[in-house]
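Bit of a strange request maybe. I'm writing a small parser for structure token strings and I need a real example to test against, not something I typed by hand. Could someone generate the tokens for this chain?
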Amino acid sequence: MTNNFKCSQTYRHRMAAALWLLTFVVMLAVPVYANGAMGIKENVVVTGNNITVGDVFYGLERDHDRVLGVSPRPGQDLVLNARTLLRIAIALDLPWRPAGSNDQVTIRREATIIGQNMIEDHLKAAIAHEGFGGAFSVRIPTDYGQIVLPREEKASLDVTQVSLNRSNNTFEATIAAPSADNPIQKFQVSGTIHPLITVPVLKENIQNGHVIGIEDLDYIQVEEANFLNGTIVDDQALVGMTPRRFGVAGRPLRAGDLMAPKIVSRGDLVTMILDDGVLNLTAKGKALENGSKGETIRIVNTSSNITIEAIVTGINEVRVAQ
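Reply from user aminoacidic:
Good idea to test on real output. This should exercise your parser:
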């Protein structure tokens, strides 16, 4: 049985080789047309339902509009190899022969393509219309990530019959393109819903010592499932802080990534404020320690030479502890 199969394979290979040899014998028997004045169009985009001789060959003296066959489906390719092209040339008595087995013509049917982003945007709008609140993204299988329509149709779609399962954040919906009234493409799709959390991040990499301002911040959205506990979501918790080591742009930050910057250095002259609700006095002092905002440090009054403790409230500013 195995030997018969091998014999059959060998026979088919020999026959194929013989046919291809015969093909080239025919090729050699027919001169190439007018020094290459006629040739093949290697990559062709067609818009109609039919492929014509003129779509495949250039330099024709006749039969330009003669129909060869049906165009591929919108967005798909059809490849005519050297053997097929030779059959066409012989059948139509065209003075062209392939230069080799690599000769081929790839024909693509022009189409209107609707991409995955547009599909998911419409699904999000439809799901929100069903009452799913907050920021979220949707995910659908890649097999449904593209809709191909004939070239003359506009890139549009309608989402109908949306069904939500809030217990596991999934949905089912029907998509019709270009519209529910003209459903050239219509299919059902299932997908998942992913709630998003807005998180402040650094716009650019920042070194330790740089005091973060609101202008240093950008915002990204993180899927709830990927949100790490401790990630800072309040941008005001970042303002006025500095990276403990090195802040990387675009990366969510946690409390341990930050520290209060030293805004008073030992030896700095500072303004001391005493405000007990009745008196509001200021005096000059000299810092005996480094201090971050909110820290209590020792200050020496430059007039009285008395050392007191004060809380750092700003750059070179302290409030006398009560």
